[in-house]
Amino acid sequence: MLVILTPQGVTDATATAKHLAEYATSTGKPVIASWVGGKDVQEGRNVLRQAGIPCFEYPDLAVRMWNYLVKYGRTIADLTKNETLSSKDLVPAGAKDAAMAIMKEAYDVKRSYLTEYESKKVLEAYGIKICATEVAFTPEEAAQKAKEIGFPVVVKIHSETITHKSDVGGVKVNLKTEEEVIAVYKDMEQRIGRPGFLGVTVQAMIDLKGSEVIIGMNRDPQYGPVLVFGAGGVLVEIFKDSALAIPPLNLEEAKATIEKTKIYKALKGFRGEPAVDLQGLAETLVKFSYLISDLKIVKELDINPLLAKTDAVIALDARVIISFDEMQGAMCYEE
Questions:
Q1: What are phi and psi of 50, to 5 degrees?
Q2: Cis peptide leading into 59, omega within 30 of 0?
Q3: Where in the sequence of the chain do the CATH 3.30.1490.20 domains occur?
Q4: What band does 10 get if pLDDT is binned at 50, 70 and 90?
Q5: Is the pLDDT of residue 222 over 70?
Q6: I want to staple 292 with a disulfide (CB 3.0 to 4.6 A). Which of 62, 67, 106, 225 is the partner?
Q7: pTM above 0.90, yes or no
Q8: CA angle centred on 184, ends 180 and 187, rounded to 5°
């Protein structure tokens, strides 16, 4: 119940507060008050606060606090649902140790940016599905990897310094022969050169029918990791469609985060298009949330795009930045 007092000439704000305090403690319902009137009603505010009733000077602030209270109640209700209790079980055993081993290799050579291949391996450790990806350091090796994966394939630059591969012409898709793979390798090596160019990754060509979304994370100095979910792909910075969540998430929280975005309308099926695997997408958010909660050494992480299809959810690209300070602390702790 929200009670607002705007005093008139004969209003006794203090007496009214005392009556409300007696009533509020007997109803069993939450009460929030707003006593408008500045210093003239301050004594009434004090009475309410001493009685355990939140009292605000302005009604808009009281309404805002009421909204937070409602949201809190809904969150608690979600947390008590039985189906959410097994969310942690979605993460494979030994995930943290496997991911730490990958990142330690970068730390040992004082490198904060993980390569795409390393980033995907971190995701894979936490059970997040990735497209088949192999690293090659010669044209011939690239052709052999492509043959093993199966044509058509995607070839991307393998680099420890270049994170936006498309900007340098470092992504070629739908390559159908070994000769095309060799030609692309040589072209990238010649155009980009070292130290940026170390080789290429050869990846399975995935049918892009579905919806591209992004899952990302930034680490706030006060609140810790903050998960971001929204529309992904190359237009992510244009649409600005995203929802925030504090990890770790259970399945209900993951689903609620997805539903907050505009792209959710497309994800659940739109104009004859089938719905994507929403359960699988929610499970991916849960796994991602445990990853960023477990690994404090991860400073930034994003999966873009994460392809949500009708029968699968696949990370097509990923980027991880680690914190040297946190990594050093983790290494000292282990020792």
A1: -65, -25
A2: no
A3: 132-204
A4: confident
A5: no
A6: 225
A7: no
A8: 140
pLDDT (average), residues 313-323:
95
The alpha carbons of the chain give a radius of gyration, in whole angstroms, of: 27
The CATH homologous superfamily for domain 132-204 is ATP-grasp fold, A domain (3.30.1490.20)
pLDDT, averaged across the chain: 89
Question: What pLDDT, in 10s, does the model give residues 226-279?
Answer: 999 999 876 666 777 899 998 999 999 999 999 999 999 999 998 888 999 999
According to DSSP, residue 86 is labeled: T
Question: What type of residue sits at position 328?
Answer: Q
Cα distance between residue 107 and residue 121, in whole Å: 16
The answer for residues whose C-beta is within 8 angstroms of residue 119's C-beta and 6 or more apart is 301, 318, 319, 320
Residue 333: the pLDDT is 40
Whether the pLDDT of residue 329 is over 70: the answer is no
**Residue type at position 185:** Y
Query: Which three-class secondary structure state does DSSP give residue 26?
Result: helix
136, burial (CB in 10 Å: exposed 0-12, middle 13-18, buried 19+): buried
The top-level CATH class assigned to 211-334 is alpha beta
Q: How confident is residue 47, by pLDDT bands cut at 50, 70 and 90?
A: very high
At CB < 8 A and 24+ separation, what contacts does 74-80 make? Answer: 75/253, 78/250, 78/252, 78/253, 78/256, 79/250, 79/252
CATH 3.40.630.90 fits 2-80, yes or no: no
How far is residue 281's CA from residue 253's CA, in Å, rounded to a whole number?
Answer: 12
Residues of the chain with CATH 3.40.50.261: 2-80
Query: What is the rounded distance in angstroms from the CA atom of residue 21 to the CA atom of residue 48?
Result: 6
Side-chain-side CA neighbours of 323 within 13 Å: the count stands at 17
Task: Residue 253: name the closest of 285, 218, 224 by CA.
Answer: 285
Q: What is the per-residue DSSP string for 169-207? A: T-EEEEE-SHHHHHHHHHHHHHHH-TTT--EEEEEE---
Identify the H or E element spanning 224: strand 224-231
